[in-house]
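Colleagues,

Please find the record for the two-part complex below.
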Amino acid sequence: EVQLVESGGGLVQPGGSLRLSCAASGFTFNSYWMSWVRQAPGKGLEWVANIHPEGTETYYVDPVKGRFTISRDNAKNSLYLQMNGLRAEDTAVYFCARKQLAGGWFDPWGQGTLVTVSS
Amino acid sequence: EIVMTQSPATLSVSPGERATLSCRASQSVSSNLAWYQQKPGQAPRLLIYGASTRATGIPARFSGSGSGTEFTLTISSLQSEDFALYYCQQYKNWPPMYTFGQGTKLEIK
């Protein structure tokens, strides 16, 4: 069974840092682009970042550029999101998702981990 | 950035009836369009990709259509489990930077 399990969320003060992890299983992790998508409370979905199967290319949505870093460890079948300089507007559930080989749709998604930025 | 606009924001339909949800792109995305269903407290679930191809395990009452800038998700005969939030997503392939619509809430009338 293909599975994605996020961890690492929590409460952090504005300006602080947090590292999210996503453990993948049930598929050949190093063959797929992987992504982070977030959802602020009561709001819609926002794509955050993508990473190439080998980690050689990354892309980010403008509001997180220069603050967030997506990375992966293919030996550990794991995806990461290092979040620095956190702001209140980064408060959201963060989902890890697998981008399909044939196109840019996401399937499956993890269950999400909540990040709350507040003093 | 490609902006995706969904309408209506909320759609009230009775069980057994047809629901039609719309999604418009600010520029052509060809057929690079996916639809997702999300229920409270759950992750999104892929319904449709390539504008009209149902994902594995998705019932035939879900269908997608459109290309370019105008897209439609139709649910032919609503079941109780279909009342949820629905999002469209564009994925023009390069660069791989994607955007979602703001969502349509499908509620029981």
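The CA atoms of residues 49 and 61 of chain A lie 6 Å apart.

Comments are welcome before we finalize the supplementary table.
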